[in-house]
Sequence to fold (382 residues):
Amino acid sequence: MGTAPNKRVMIVAGEASGDLHGSNLVKEALRLDPTLSFFGIGGPHMREAGVETLVDSSEMAVVGLVEVLAHFGVIYRAYATLKRAITNNPPDLLILIDYPDFNMLVARVAKRAGVKVLYYISPQVWAWRTGRVKKIARLVDRMAVVFPFEVPFYEKAGVPVTFVGHPLADRVRPTMTRDEALTSFGLDPSRRVIGLFPGSRRGEIARLFPVIIESTKLLKARYPELQFILPLASSLTSADIEPHMASAGLEIAVVRDKVYDVMQICDAIMTVSGTVTLEIALMGVPMVIIYTVSPLTYEVGKRLVRVDHIGICNIVAGKRVVPELIQHEVTADRLAEEIGRYLDDPVYTENTRAELATVKEKLGAGGGSERVAGIVLKMLGK
Fold:
């Protein structure tokens, strides 16, 4: 009697954050069962974890309706590659991570081929296009969600769901003490520090970094003792930010990696929207969130969005814990004014820190990747 063949798992993560969360899940699953094999769409983290990537996720990380249309060819080819792989040799399980529009197409192919589907890190169906939950109920066998408020949403729709905790709860940890970090980055411990987080995509840099730079000039004029620091995303090069930096005429410390060490030394942070706002919230640092997309994307989105906030930390809190500036509100004056409020009002700042601590509590105590790996094994019948 022969041994059972090794189980094959297709995993799809179309963006940088999904690549990271996918890699942690794969590592945990392989720790529990080293015989599993993983393949699909991912980036450097997933390849390092042992995933055979048929498509590199960095080609697919775009935001907004107009931007997606411009990348349609790349996205369609990726879909065709996965469809062939599922149809010709169906995997034992398909794991989808966020990236909803693309992943729901892949889920349909898997369902037709009789492949079980686990969705990890829910699409934000609770925020917009809520009707998609019916499609999810048809195509997905189990949801592994990272926010507690997602559970009743899926239960109501009849989708099997498990709250696993947010994977960032395990990752958001500085590697140095605050004093060590300040010394390492060449900053003066006696002066306040403002963090500049302009995003990881070139489109965000083009749209939002000029406003951030203008606001730093306003702040420096008003608070001469301020120091500024910018953690440069791995997806960007110095050339992406240098033209804007040169126009500032300010000293801004630019740091590669060490993003949580950067966060912990900041008195306040200006940041684009996205996962980074959750990381900053977990570090308990007051922030101002800025968000713009193309006018067409914004006008379409405005009619579809069902939540009151853009920043995920505010959505988790269920209220406006930190300021958000959206579209036409994103001006250097407004941004400097909101940061200045943190600098001028210690009571307001402490209240913000206290509210961010409640966001951290809601996200769970860690161990999310391990819990999802347990679900993977169960769905594989192990």
